[in-house]
Each structure stands twice: as structure tokens, then as C-alpha cells.
Design brief:
alpha+beta; 4-stranded antiparallel β-sheet; 8 helices; 11 strands; 40% helix; disordered C terminus
Length: 240
């Protein structure tokens, strides 16, 4: 069985999206943009809202989610430093299809709609990158939907821990496990299960030596075994 986890299959690809732009385009973006500090738990934009621009995550982490019929959240992605938010609604000229909120203190740059579209129309580099990005994101969503439909809760917990391990890894310690710092409620909403089920499974993983936890921070201790638990190669799922 493989011990390789391909994070690209579950990660968007907007980092470096502005690389290669002309000096004029970069200057237009810089001159028009404004950066704000956000506290943990603050809304960036809300589902159904009218988009007035896009957001560039300078520092921190942001959850993207849909509101369920019962008023809960289904978190489908966590953005990290260097990623864009809110551009889907601008490109489609529609209201925001999802919500975004910070899960830690963050710095986010707002780029007005008119500026973004002006640069996009003038730059084949940016338009080509966005086309490739949107194509890749379709594959990411397919993988996420397949995971929810075919994997057991235990497998989904393992898979999401692997995804978050890379997102929370420190740049100055790339070989060290990521310090996954999310509330148990948010993690349960990402896995797609009740908080009680998540807590029970995390305790099992901890007792089996797969992870360690201090407060709400989780670290993977045995990545090879967590990959096996995620059942990334198919096979019969474990039912819990």
C-alpha cells in the first residue's frame, strides 16, 4: 500500500496567481488595494452577498463553507497564506455562493472588482492562470464529493488531518508535523460528522499513537499509518 499523500488533489492552486504580471498591472493592483487585520472568527464575506472585489490572504487561515438547511456549516476548504478568495463570484457575475470566515488572526488584502477585472482583461498571463486554476478546482471538488460519498467517518477524519497537516505546517520547519489548530466544531464540520463522533475518533487515533493533542492543537505522529487509515488506495472501508 502506498505511503504517499498527494495533497494537490485536495488543494486549490491560486498561490502565485499574480506572478508574471507586468509592472503596470502590479502597480494598478497595489494602488487600488487595501489590507485589513481580521480577528479569529470574523466574516470575510457571506453567502448570498453581492461581491465588490476579491480577497488575497496575506497571512492567516480562512474557512470556506456552505450553510446547511439546519443552519450549520459544511466546511469544504481552508485557505492559507497566498490564496485568493471571492473571485468565483466576480468571474460569474453572481452573488457569493459560499461564506468565508477567519479561523485565526489574519491579514487580508481587498482588491476592488473594477481593478481586478481591468487587469484580467489586459493580461493573458492572469487569464490563462485563472483558467487552469478553475479547471484544477473542479477536480478538487470532485475528490471532496467522492470522499464524502464513499469514505467512512474514520477515513474522512484521517484524510482531513492529512490535508490540514500540510496547511498548518510552518515554513521554517517544513519537515516537522503541522500544528493543526482548529476548533473541534470546525473540524467536525469539515469532516461532515457530529462533534461527538469526531472527538471519539480523535481519542481513538490518540490512543493508537497516530496523533497527539494539546488543547485544540493536533499533530500527526505516524503519517504512514494515518495515510493507511484514510484508505487512499480504495478497498473496503472501515465502518464506525
Amino acid at each position: 500500500m502506498t505511503t504517499v499523500f498527494r495533497s494537490d488533489s485536495f488543494r486549490f492552486n491560486t498561490k502565485g496567481i499574480f506572478d508574471g504580471l507586468s509592472e503596470e498591472s502590479v502597480r494598478s493592483i497595489v494602488d487600488a488595494s487595501v489590507t485589513h487585520a481580521y480577528k479569529r472568527g470574523e466574516m470575510v464575506f457571506r453567502e448570498g452577498g453581492i461581491p465588490s472585489g476579491i480577497f488575497y490572504l496575506v497571512k492567516g487561515k480562512v474557512k470556506k463553507y456552505k450553510t446547511t438547511a439546519k443552519g450549520g456549516e459544511q466546511i469544504f476548504y481552508v485557505c492559507t497564506t497566498g490564496e485568493l478568495l471571492g473571485y468565483h463570484a466576480i468571474l460569474s457575475d453572481e452573488h457569493y455562493p459560499d461564506s468565508a470566515a477567519t479561523i485565526e488572526d489574519s491579514e487580508i488584502t481587498f482588491i476592488p472588482r473594477e481593478t481586478f477585472l481591468k487587469v484580467l482583461h489586459a493580461s493573458t498571463v492572469l487569464s490563462n492562470k485563472l483558467l487552469k486554476t478553475l479547471g484544477h478546482e473542479f477536480s478538487v471538488f470532485i475528490n471532496a464529493i467522492t470522499s464524502l460519498a464513499t469514505k467512512s467517518v474514520r477515513e474522512r477524519v484521517a484524510l482531513n488531518l492529512l490535508i490540514l497537516d500540510e496547511k498548518f505546517r510552518r515554513e521554517d520547519k517544513p519537515d516537522a508535523p503541522g500544528e493543526i489548530n482548529m476548533s473541534r466544531t470546525d473540524l467536525a464540520n469539515m469532516v461532515g460528522t457530529a462533534k461527538e463522533n469526531l472527538v471519539r475518533l480523535l481519542q481513538q487515533f490518540k490512543s493508537e499513537g497516530l496523533i497527539e493533542s494539546t488543547g485544540r492543537v493536533i499533530k500527526i505522529l505516524n503519517k504512514k499509518e494515518v495515510i493507511r487509515e484514510a484508505n487512499l488506495t480504495g478497498g473496503n472501508p472501515k465502518v464506525f
